[in-house]
C-alpha cells in the first residue's frame, strides 16, 4: 500500500516518539518527598475540563490512589502514571462518582504487571461489598484475558481486588490505616450526611503532610485532622452557580433533576468554607477540588471562589486534572506543576 507523504511523516513521528512514551515514568523520577497528583477534579456533573474524583499520592515511587471516579485510569494514562506502581486504593465513601472507575484502575494495574499481588482496596464498612461486586462483574473479562494471553502474562489469582475493611473505634474520630516505608496514612471522619461513614485521609512522610477531604461540608473533625498540614485538598461547590443550574432545569421541565441539584449544597462545603477550614487548621496551602458545578468560562472562577482568597492568606488554587503538588522531604517550598499540560 502506498501512503501519501503526510501519512508517512506522521508514521515516522509516531515511531520516533513511541519509545519515549513507553518508558515515561514521572512517578519514578520524582525526588524524595510527598507528591499529590489530582487525577479527577470535577463532580458527577458532565465537565469537559474535569473528571470525576480521584487523587494519587506518590511516595518512594509508589502510588496510593484515593477514590477512583469514572475515567480515572484513562486520566492516569494521560499523566503517564504507570498503573503497575499502584500500591493500594483508599476509599472515602461509595457515591457513584467516587467508585465508577475502580474496576478499570484494577484492570490496568493487573494487565500492566500481572505478577503483582492483588490490589488492596482499603476503606470503611461497605468496601467489601463494593470490591466483591466489582470482582464478580469483571470475572468473565478476567477469564477472557487469561484465556487469550495466558497465565504467565496475566496471573489469574492477582486479577481480583483484595478488600481491606477498617472501622474507626467508637468515640474516636481517626485512626492509622496504613504504614509503608516511612509513610503514615490516617483516616478521619467527615460530615457528608446522610452518608455514613464518610472519610478523609491524611498522609504524613518525612516531616511533610497532605490531607484529602473526601466529600464533606464544613467539618471540625477535618480541621483537627488537617492541623498544620502543608497542603489541604478540599472539595467545594458554589451555591449561587448550582442554584442557577437547578432553576434552569426546573424551567426546562425537569423537576426531579432540579430538586437533586437543589439538594446538593447541604453536604458539601463552599469555597469560602474550605478557606475557613484551611485557615483554622493552619494549612500551608489549599487546593479546591470536586468543583460543582462545572466552570466553562474562566470568568466564573471568581464567582465560585467568592471571598475565599480573603479568608485564607496562603496559596489557593482551583485544582485541574493533572495537577501535581510536590513537597520535598524534610522541608522546602511546595512546587506545583501539571503532568498533562507540560507535555
Your description of this structure?
The chain is α/β, with parallel strands linked by helices. The chain has helices at residues 5-23, 26-29, 72-78, 96-99, 102-112, 127-137, 139-149, 220-225, 239-251, 255-263, 271-281, 300-305, 308-311; strands spanning 33-40, 54-59, 62-66, 86-90, 120-123, 162-165, 174-180, 183-189, 199-205, 208-212, 231-237, 286-292, 316-318, 323-328, 335-338. It has one domain (26-338): Ribonuclease Z/Hydroxyacylglutathione hydrolase-like (Metallo-beta-lactamase, Chain A), CATH 3.60.15.10. Helix content is 34%, strand content 25%. An 8-stranded mixed β-sheet has the order 6-5-4-3-2-1-14-15. Helix 9 (239-251) runs antiparallel to helix 10 (255-263). It is globular and about 60 Å long.
Could you give a quick summary of the protein structure above?
Helix content is 34%, strand content 25%. The protein is α/β, with parallel strands linked by helices.
Please supply descriptive tags for the structure shown above.
Metallo-beta-lactamase, Chain A; 343 residues; seven-stranded mixed beta sheet; 15 strands; alpha/beta
Major beta sheet summary:
8 strands, mixed
The percent of residues in helical segments reads: 25-40%
Following the backbone from N to C, one meets helices and strands in this order, namely HHEEEHEHHEHHEEEEEHEHHHEHHEEE
Specify the CATH homologous superfamily: Ribonuclease Z/Hydroxyacylglutathione hydrolase-like
- Rg, alpha carbons: 21 Å
Shape: globular
Output the CATH class name.
Alpha Beta
| CATH fold-type name | Metallo-beta-lactamase, Chain A
Q: Give me the CATH architecture, please.
A: 4-Layer Sandwich
Number of helices: 13
- Secondary structure class reads alpha/beta
Sequence of strands across the biggest β-sheet: 6-5-4-3-2-1-14-15
The share of residues in extended strands comes to 15-25%
Number of strands: 15
**Distance linking N and C termini:** 33 Å
Overall mean pLDDT stands at 94
As residue ranges, the low-confidence spans are none
Number of domains: 1
